[in-house]
Amino acid sequence: MADIAIRSARKYPCDKCPLHARQIFRQFTKPELEFISRFKKGELTVDRGATVLSEGTRNPHLYTILQGWSFRYKMLSDGRRQIVNYAMPGDLIGLQGTMLGEMEHSVEALSPMILCVFERNELQTLYEQHPDLAYDITWIASREECMLDENLLSIGRRNAMERLAYLIAFLLRRAEGTGLHSQKTPLEIPITQQHVADTLGLSLVHTNKTVRKLAERQLLQWRDRGCAVLDLEGLEKLAGWTGDQSNKLRPFI
Amino acid sequence: MADIAIRSARKYPCDKCPLHARQIFRQFTKPELEFISRFKKGELTVDRGATVLSEGTRNPHLYTILQGWSFRYKMLSDGRRQIVNYAMPGDLIGLQGTMLGEMEHSVEALSPMILCVFERNELQTLYEQHPDLAYDITWIASREECMLDENLLSIGRRNAMERLAYLIAFLLRRAEGTGLHSQKTPLEIPITQQHVADTLGLSLVHTNKTVRKLAERQLLQWRDRGCAVLDLEGLEKLAGWTGDQSNKLRPFI
DNA sequence: CGTTGACTTGACCGTCTTCAAGTTTAGTGG
DNA sequence: CCACTAAACTTGAAGACGGTCAAGTCAACG
């Protein structure tokens, strides 16, 4: 079944980090690289569907995603679920829990994942010895906040079609922002319609009908467990979204 | 009309900060206090209804609220507005803009306010010289993120009554968390039903009808431009909210 | 070849929106 | 102090958007 396995061996040592090779992420200085190499405790391999972090628990670790997609969610006591955001390569997972103590949300893998594992306790040391990295972490937190603001706007004020268009455009933009996909391999967003429903605050049935409408309009195409974008600009226009998601140089731990 | 005025004189020098006198906020060390005193450039007085920060602009400042309430919001091009969160004494305003460059939301005063003004550019110095304060800022950002997660859950998955109950309970808890209100002066939340509607993603009409229902149930009482809570636990129960908003020691810049 | 998870579809119903009036209150100027 | 205005709040009626229920189909997988 959905499983989690940690290994202290490194398939991806920090000095050969496949993500830092990407132009999009800012490069480390030498001392930073050395620090991060020590800060990293190992790698975590996660199956699709596995729970990486659980609401209400205390986890001694902090993660960066090397490969794969995941989502963060919260639940009400009667089972209603709200997906709050997604996380993909280059994103930090578990910072909130590190700062506030207990996890206030859960994280589940949407695809097989590889994570870098860091020790929560050592974050303080990072703040003491590497102010630039500390600043970067705050940058990352602010970016998350900004995305949440957008999602709130969407759920609160857009109708079903606009919401869906926004969500898909948003996810594609972010995926592009990881720099991992070439133009030639049109990437597929690895989510089910149930995920979409739980993100948009809609029912599964209505989500399905909305998906069909956008598919009819040739804006996207739905497959089993995935979504392909046919017309990104069409989606953005429908959502009324100025997707200026500045995909510029950004920090990364 | 709604006005903004800055003064470099300090009615509230940092060593006599009325908020730090409150038990709830962690105390500065002496060097921290000295740094912050220099970091603070003045005080800003703001009328109710005035816009403190505007979406799309670059503001060279960062603020902490000394007095008064405000809200953060985003708008769609056709005028639909979504209030994303509220800010009250002790909260930091403008961090997102500082980190990401341009403001992605606006901030408006709900009541007359007094703000401490800091220089954006000097934040880097804070990170270099005071890692503990830097850590605190990240803590504050994480707390904001956590609140946004809650709000998303609410808008996405709760119905109108639950949403309203949650919002009012949430705001009261936070107000209590500033430690500025005694049990004896039952505080009034300084918002209009239009604010509530724009927070909950509801229409004004439906918001009004929902307010009436909660008032009939003796959970709250509405006044002109304000809301008084009659039964906090009743609201929390209705919302299904375990409001463990740990009102413990927290940092503050 | 049966089971399971994901997607699909139609019918009916309820929550919430929109429209279109009100009333009440606070603030302003004569 | 009173008349006027604007902002906030209120209410009812009609209808749309999205939810719920109840069946499906389809593909993957062991």
Explain what the structure shows.
By secondary structure, chain A is α+β, with helices and mostly antiparallel strands. The first copy, chain A, folds into two domains: 4-132, Jelly Rolls (Sandwich), CATH 2.60.120; 149-239, Arc Repressor Mutant, subunit A, CATH 1.10.10.10. Chain A is built from eight helices and twelve strands. The first copy, chain A, has helices at residues 30-39, 95-100, 123-129, 131-157, 160-177, 193-200, 204-216, 232-239; strands at 4-7, 40-46, 51-53, 61-67, 70-75, 81-87, 92-93, 106-109, 113-119, 188-189, 220-223, 226-229. In chain A, the strands form three sheets. A five-stranded antiparallel sheet of chain A has the order 1-2-9-4-7. A four-stranded antiparallel sheet of chain A has the order 3-8-5-6. Chain A has a three-stranded antiparallel sheet with strand order 10-12-11. The longest helix of chain A is centred in the middle third of the chain and has 27 residues, at 131-157. The radius of gyration of chain A is 18 Å and the shape is globular. The first copy, chain A, starts with a strand and ends in a 14-residue tail after the last helix. The model of chain A has no long low-confidence stretch (mean pLDDT 94). At the A-B interface, strand 6, helix 2, helix 3, helix 4 and helix 6 of A face strand 6, helix 2, helix 3, helix 4 and helix 6 of B. The structure holds a DNA duplex (30 and 30 nucleotides).
Descriptive terms for the model:
253 residues, homodimer, alpha+beta, Jelly Rolls, DNA-binding, 4-stranded antiparallel beta sheet
